[in-house]
Structure prediction request, 256 residues.
Amino acid sequence: MDFIEVCLVAALMYQGYRLLRGSIAFNIFFGILVVFLLYFSAVALDMVLLPKIFQKFVEAGVLIIIIVFQPEIRRFLLIIGRGGLVNRKSFVQNFLSGKLSSNNPHTNAIKSVYKAILKCAESKTGALIVIADASSASLFGESGILLNANLSSDLLESIFFKNAPLHDGAVIINGNKILAARSVLPVSNSQDMPSSVGLRHRSALGVTEHSDVVALIVSEENGSISYAKDGKLFHKVNSDEIAEVIKNAYGIKAKD
Prediction:
């Protein structure tokens, strides 16, 4: 039991590190850790003034952690609440049953998103597309204009056309539907992002820090394609890689 407990604690610590890595919350965590170490060191050395200064901070430690790390905690609970294990099980069952991508109900959606991304890149049209499950799509779609339209590459291209009224913000996709356009996403405060990226890339990274979604980005400046997943930004990828990312977002192995 001791060995199992150590393994569980190590796994929790590793997952916590993955959630915090690359974000400003990682530095805040070490700041809080330093304060706690100073407090316990001052108590151990029988100091008087420092323990009194840090005591109230330590007493409210749990509340402070919840407030500071609210986005990371929220993302963790969303991952659990959305039934990720069930989805993975369904994917394994589909794989073992020999279902190919041609039999997947989202094949047309995958082709449409892929075609739209390449077209936007070719014309240097800025684009931000979020592929999400039903719960996440509803959550982030509420901030935009609800469409609930059938997904097609032509519609995506027209939405992101520079003079179109809906081109600002993100398009939220769930399955074969464009749920919303012009959606406002949470902006990441990560300090590890390239200096050349702008608000579109920070929004893509921010939404993946809050929920288990995939965000696709086309740069308006140079037409480069990037994507964000699991709180990480993958900058300037090629067409083959973005095709694999889109297929994986729909639960299809890249090789299919």
Remarks:
- The radius of gyration is 22 Å.
- The chain has two domains: 2-68, 106-249.
